[in-house]
Design a protein that fits this description.
The complex is a heterodimer of chains A (252) and B (248).
Chain A (H helix, E strand, L loop, with lengths): L24 H4 L1 H5 L41 H11 L2 H21 L4 H18 L10 H17 L28 H13 L3 H12 L4 H8 L3 H20 L3
Helix pairs in contact in A: 3-4, 4-5, 5-6, 7-10, 8-10, 9-10
Chain B lengths: L26 H9 L4 H13 L1 H19 L10 H11 L10 H4 L13 H8 L15 E4 L2 E5 L7 E7 L13 E12 L4 E2 L4 E4 L8 E14 L12 H5 L2
Antiparallel strand pairs in B: 1-2, 2-3, 3-7, 4-5, 4-6, 4-7
Helix pairs in contact in B: 1-3, 2-3
Classes of the chains: A mainly alpha (252), B alpha+beta (248).
The structure holds zinc ion.
Amino acid sequence: MQHSRLHPGPLPGRPSPGAPARPGHAHADHAHTQRGHCAALARRPRLLFNAPMRNTDQPGAAPSSFTAAAPSEESAEALLLAVGRRQDRAAFASLFAQFAPRLKAYLRRLGSDAGAAEELAQEVMLLVWRRAETFDPAQASAATWIFTIARNKRIDALRREQRPEIDLDDPALVPDPVEDAESALSAAQASGRLRDALGGLPPEQAVLLRMAYFEDKPHSTIATETGIPLGTVKSRLRLAMDRLRKSLRDAG
Amino acid sequence: MSTLTLPHGILSMPPHPSAPPAHHPGEPLLLDYAGGALGEGASLAIATHLALCPACRHTVREMEAAGGALLEELEPEPLEPGGLERLLARLDEAPAEPPRRLPPSIQTGAPFLPPFLPEPLRGRLARLWRGGPGEGDLSGLPWRRSMPGLAYVNIPTNGGARTRLLRLQGGSALPEHTHHGIELALVLRGGFSDEFHQFLPGDIGVGDDAVTHRPVADPEGCLCLSVADGEIRMTGSIGRFLNRFIRV
Ligand SMILES: [Zn+2]
C-alpha cells in the first residue's frame, strides 16, 4: 500500500475512515493549532538551553533597541521576543525577511510547488506571530522554534493529520531531571556551534542528514532510493548526529 | 463490550513509572520523528514514549536544534512580491489569542480517562470515548475481542499504519506471525516479556521480521499501545511483537 507520506504534494491521500473531520485545514485550523501542540514544546525549562540570552529585553534595556527595521546585529531571538512582548511589527518584518524565504525553500524541498510553498510559508509566519508570546529563548533558538512550527504545520496541512506531540504541561509527563546549569549553552551559542558543526560534516553525512530533514523520508526509504544499504544510512546519520551533539556538549 | 479486565489496582497505580524506561525507540526512529518523516501511528507511539522518557526528549530536542540550524542555512527561495504586506494585513484580522495553559484533562475533555495516560495518546483516546459504566477504568472505549485474553481498541491514524490500544490478561502468550515493516509496542501499564527482555511501563519495543520470539504478558496483565507500520524497516532490532498481538 502506498502511503501519502511518500508523496508530500498537496493532499494526495484521503483521511482514514475514522479520522475526525478537519474542515479547512489548509488555512483555518486555528482552533487546533491553538491547542498548542507545537507551542507546548517551548514552555518549560529544558536540558539543552538553560543560560539566559544575551539580548533578552530585561527591564532597563533600551526600549528602542527593537524598533529599527532589521538591524543586522539584532538576533532572531531578540526579534521574536519583541514580537511576543510588544507585538512589534518592525521586528516581525525582520523575522519575515529572514525566515519566510527559507521556509519557502524548506517547503519546496519537501515537495510543495512554488505557490503552495509560498502560501504555507505565510501560514507558518502567521503562527509565529500568534505564538511568539510562548517563545522562550532559554529553551530553543528562534530558528529551532520556527523549524518545529513549520514541520508541524506542513504535516497538519498536507497529510490531514494532527502531528502527535507531547504536552509539557501534562501531569502524566515524567519531568526532566534537574539540570546542571553550568553545562547549558545559550540558544544563540548553540545555534552558532551547530552551524559550524554542520559545515564540518563529511559530504556523505551532510547529504543524508539533509535528506532526513528535507525529504520527508524515513531512514528506510532513503536507503531504498539512494541504493545505500540501510545499515550505512543509519551509521552515517548517527555519526552526523553525534558530531552535532558533541558540538553542543563540549565546552569551547 | 469486552469482559476482559485487568486486575484490580493496575490502573490506579502512581501516575509515573518508578524508573526511567529501559527500552527506547533508538536514534533512527527519533530522527525520523524529529524531522517529520514518520507516519502518524508511529509518531503517536514515539511521542507518547517521549512523555515518559526525559532522555529521549532531550535527544529529540537536540535533533530539532539541528533542524533549526539546517533551516537557517538553506538557500533562501525568492518570495512573490507583496507577501509581507498581505501577511501584515492578516495580523489585524486575526489577533493573537493567549496560549492555553489548561491541564490536559480539561484540554481533551477527558477527565474520565485514567490519570496515567499521557498526551498525545490521551487526546486520541478521548476522541473515541463513548461512555461507560465507570470512570478511570477505560471501560468506555470501543473494545473488541479477538482471542481469549486479548482485547483491543482501534485508533484511527493516517498513512496505513495499524494503531491499537491492547489489553492482555496476565500470562497470555501470542501466536507467531510474520510481517513486513516494523512494529512498536509501548507499555502503559503492567508489562510483557520475551526470552530476552522484560518490558515495563514507558518501555517501547521495536520489532521487525528479523527475529522471532514469543512475548508473554506479565502476571498482572499488560496495557500497551501497538503500531504496525509496513513502510518502515529496521535492521538489527530486537524482534517483533505487535503482529502477534494484533493479527490473530
Ligand atoms: Zn526513551
